[in-house]
Write a structure and sequence with these properties.
The protein is of the alpha/beta class. The chain is 47% helix and 14% strand. The protein folds into 2 domains: 124 residues, Rossmann fold (3-Layer(aba) Sandwich); 60 residues. The two termini are 20 Å apart.
Length: 201
């Protein structure tokens, strides 16, 4: 008989929450002047990782200074979070898993995105155990980030299964000793979990 894993770990973006970054890029670039507004905005957006704790207020100021972004913080916050769609069925599914066994999130994110999504889900995301890159100061796909999550969560990597929609993150998890699978859709996930001896509900 298959022994189920001790913990299930899920990415957030691309698994529970869809995100179309192009929507965000267009929103930000629309408030920047010049023929290459998008390029100028992207240069700032990609100037450093914004998911390991750097204040997003610094990003707003950098966009104003270097790309001519013309909106205040409140508008920027709306632009910065305009590209998300919550997959309610997946959230239901993960909550059902969490009701039966240790289940938590490991996401590359920042405080503004996380807080926005907690609000969008009526607080439901905030009820899940989670390890967030901007809080731990490390981001996927680094091996170190997965080892730090294992340390903070108190899990043995070989007894936990991580699901992510990005192949590089799956590889990073495996390098840290986790079982890890590429997420494609809920039906395939359910099939994989069944094979591991896990059934939701």
């Amino acid at each position: 008989m298959t022994t189920p894993p001790d913990a299930l770990i899920f990415d957030l973006g691309g698994v529970i929450v869809a995100h179309d970054n192009e929507v965000m890029y267009r929103a930000i670039a629309s408030r920047c002047p010049g023929d290459d507004a998008r390029g100028a905005a992207l240069k700032v957006l990609r100037s450093q990782p914004w998911d390991t704790g750097a204040p997003i207020a610094d990003l707003h100021r950098a966009l104003q200074a270097h790309a001519g972004y013309g909106a205040d913080w409140d508008q920027f916050a709306r632009d910065w979070t305009c590209h998300f769609t919550v997959d309610e069925a997946m959230l239901d599914y993960v909550e059902a898993l969490a009701a039966a066994r240790r289940t938590f999130l490991f996401s590359n994110t920042n405080a503004e995105h996380w807080d926005h999504l907690v609000d969008r889900t009526g607080g439901r995301l905030g009820q899940l155990e989670r390890y967030l890159s901007h809080e731990i100061g490390l981001a996927k796909p680094s091996r170190e980030s997965f080892l730090e999550v294992a340390r903070q969560a108190g899990v043995e990597p070989s007894r936990a299964v991580f699901f992510d929609d990005v192949e590089a993150n799956v590889v990073g998890a495996r390098a840290a000793g986790f079982q890890s699978e590429l997420f494609t859709d809920q039906a395939s996930l359910a099939s994989t979990l069944k094979a591991l001896g896990v059934i939701a509900g």
